[in-house]
Fold these 2 entries.
Entry 1:
Amino acid sequence: MSDTLATNVPTYPFGNAGLDPLLPDLGPDGVGRVRLPTGQQAWLFTRHEHLRELLRSPDFSSDFTRPGFPLIRPIPEDMPRRPDGSLIRMDPPEHTKFRRMLTPEFMIKHIRTLEPLIRQTVVDALEQMRAAGPPADLVEHFALPVPSMVICHLLGVPYADHDYFQERSRILLAWSSPPEQVRDAIEELRDYLARLIADRRDSPGEDLISRLAAERVATGEMTEEELVGLSVLLLIAGHETTSNMIGLSTLVLLEHPEQLRQLRERPELIDDTVEELLRYLTIVRTGLTRVAVADTDVGGHRIAAGEGVIALLSAANRDTDVFPAGAEFDLHRGSHQHMAFGFGIHQCIGQPLARAELRIALSEMITRLPGLALAVDADEVRYRDAVVFGVQRLPVTW
Ligand code: HEM
């Protein structure tokens, strides 16, 4: 189907109005066309089996500099379009090479060694929140600082600079940010990390950026520019995602008091709870974008080379063929087939870290704050109008 043939197509993205993702009626096979803010059209896939097919197919590229790549927001003409080092926008063989360099750093084995630090960070943040209230904003005092401190520790970024990078990453992800502001935020983050990398090259520490600078940049396997791109991605992905998950997860648990009671009684349910929260919330709500690099088929639909596609994780994670009553939150369902971390070669490299943070943060929070409750009505909670779904603030009491 060419762009010129499809008319009356819905406008994408659909917005973040509440815990249930918005979705137009696409008919039984859940495939449709959407119009993007750039005026382009793209295919939209929502079924679990179609996403598995699409996301593991070598016929699609993640490289946003390719013609036809579906852009979910307009970008300024003069913005440099470089996928350099930013793993998520790279294709094999470069992607494979970079991913291998990072894999050991994020393996479960390595993340286990970080657990005492994560726990201490969680406990300290809970104490600080206690000191600030009740009531207090759980996002400001707990959900945002914990993953930010952990990723700072891992990368060797001074946490004292958190206002600087959090503000720029907020601008970068907000739908309402004008394209020029987004461009400036990216360039400022790049400059900030370029300076930090230069520092670490001259006086290395025990952190990931120092290691990559010494072992990969110095040997010529990675350019300094690529390390900058990779560090920006890790810094943003490392705190924005988990932080939004902690805020939203707290809201969902408080809104399901019977399941929260069961979790308090049986702490061993925490792993299943985290998986179900990941499925139910699917914070990467805008889905994953790709462009076809060859004529290909997905779910019996012919996609021409150069056409853009969107894989809507939030819909696939509620596909009732795989998750019966998928719109319900049920921590007993066993949600291991969810795609909240994506699927295929780009599947989230940070998932062991995210899972450890969520498990520790939520367990400690419900144990240490047995009287935790919302300080406002649930329908007063405002959601973020951003690429990554979350709550703006979460006023709580205990
Ligand atoms: C990739 C989700 C936490 C780093 C992805 C992708 C998703 C995702 C859906 C796939 C993107 C694509 O295929 O285009 C999440 C969620 C998280 C989370 C829901 C938290 C609950 C983290 C953390 C880190 C991280 C803590 C880092 C430290 C990355 C990186 C990629 C990625 C580097 C790119 C991997 C690649 O392209 O090979 N994430 N993420 N993420 N994530 Fe996460």
Entry 2:
Amino acid sequence: RAKELGKSRFKVFNQRMHEAVLRLMALETELRKAVERRELYLEYQPIIDLAESRICGFEALVRWNHEYLGSISPAEFIPLAEDSGLITDIGDFVFEQAVTDLKKWNVPEGIAHRGSLYVCINISGRQFMQPDFAGHVEQLIREWNANPEYLRFEITESVLMEQMSVVADTVSRLRTFGVRMCIDDFGTGYSSLSYLQRLPVDIIKIDRSFVAQLQNDREGRSIVRSILSLGNSLGLDVIAEGVECLHQEQVLDDMECRYLQGFLYSASLSVAEVDSLLAMEAPLAYLRFTAESGGF
Ligand code: C2E
Ligand code: MG
Ligand code: MG
Ligand code: MG
């Protein structure tokens, strides 16, 4: 009986695995086509500067809407893109698109009176570790006539822990171009204080799992507080990710966390939505207002 049960469980498991593998294989083929057909596009999530009470930048988030499969999360297709080598093409597309969109938003006659905006671009591990990544970026900057002052690259902590000397070299080179470096999902990797000192990064993003714990208990708060004081003492900007409610904002504000991002203000927006948002007199007030009534 038990044996039989075991067998049938194995069968089910096996079948599920088989289906999962098939999906991945199909997705990879589709992703290749998506890149060629330019089916991918970007959305932008606002980043808030509490001190100046304004939107100070956006994080570019890649989207894929397949004609039959519907929308597929980057959490699923980015790893696939890394394994298949498609990440370079996707990365180039994200860079080009983000730079082009930002140019439109940063025009002097537009929102310049509100200060300039930056864009955060996610760089995956495989992409970052490709030979001469910095040289490639230098070329892209020239090709697209980008202003690197307004560019920020996000890399996760785990990437930074790999091959320290290569990573440190790439980070330094990117910074000499003027690109700022940001550690994404900070606190989820194997952080050690020494690597932060050795790496010339500019910004850290507190992972949203820690922000989610802010309401709960003192312990939850103390992790965020210590990341903030670490950031402050190293002269880094700190962004809290995944801010979903006013209470979290309040606690973060009390801790003097200056930069916030999350569904409380807005989920990622289409280019057209950002266009109309930035045309408004008070974009942040608008986001706050609509957040209360269920988003943009
Ligand atoms: P990430 O860089 O940490 O991006 C933040 C993710 O959290 C986004 O998911 C965003 O939509 C989501 N998020 C933002 N605010 C909130 C909130 O208040 N609550 C909750 N629960 N979630 C929030 P998304 O867009 O699905 O992206 C997932 C991951 O995929 C990203 O994590 C990033 O690692 C990767 N990714 C996205 N776009 C790109 C890209 O252009 N290139 C690369 N290499 N990776 C990307
Ligand atoms: Mg990110
Ligand atoms: Mg993140
Ligand atoms: Mg993440």
